[in-house]
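Handout, page 2. Input:
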Amino acid sequence: MLASTRGIAGREAVECVHFGSIAIVDPDGELLAAVGDAGGMNFSRSTLKPLQALAFVEDGGLARFGFGSQELALMCSSHSGESVHVQIVQSMLERIGAQVGDLQCGCHLPRYFAATATTPPANLRISALHHNCSGKHTGFLAYCRLHGHRLDNYLDPDAPVQVRVRNIAQAFCPERTVVAGVDGCSAPNFALPLMRLAQAYCRIACDAAPGLRALYFAMTRHPDLVSGTARMDLALMRTGAGNWVSKIGADGVQMIGIRSQGLGIAIRIAGGDASALHVTTVDVLHQIGLLDEPLRTPLAAYFRPPLRNTRELPIGRFQPLFRLPRLAKG
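Output:
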């Protein structure tokens, strides 16, 4: 689907080939364009986060705890552990009467440093608040508080919040049973056909249901909270200017919903390479006519970029090997 070449003086050889699949659907789930296996089962990873927050929204949780669009954006986020992210998650925990120790997501170095190629300060102190999934886990805890459930077992597959999430995921996949697994943050996760994941994001972008509209509003209004500085989802949603909702997932998964055209786009790089995913995503948008001048947008750095070494010298390039039809604009 995508190749990287390496060479000098006009003589290049293919070094890596990245295989994957693309599915583009309408709100009814009808396949409009595809590459690879559009019906193949793929774990949703962090692209599931809006659906994991949906039950809390549908049950009136936002009003119950005084949460607004910022808090909902954090529940849908894979944030970078920047101060604004940490502060909002901490505030959410306080409002629901929970503590950092109730979070079962684990702890890792904030993604801000990798995204910005900066070195963490020597005196940096991190906690579960900095985990990119801390907003999602706080949403789980908030659902438990809303319904009077225990907090200590909220990640159990049979916990009420996880049963509800599974039912929501299953509703987007009526033709077969979703496959259960465990995500990197220890939360249950589900595999769906790629085209059904695309349909889910099409519905988030286009459906009139109040819960889905709330998700769309929060994510597109606060892309900096859903993502972070120098991150892909931030660049995508800033380029879409309120018309595109996007969410990346670990190991090569990207979902986008396009409101004005009524499209859902799902991309999966089989080997999980992040650079290949970014380049492919921008090329998909360009090829189907949604990104006519990518070099004049926040996505410029991802459009068929040169391959560079650690001295920033160009030593090769990325080359798309797929072709999609240009779709009619709405």
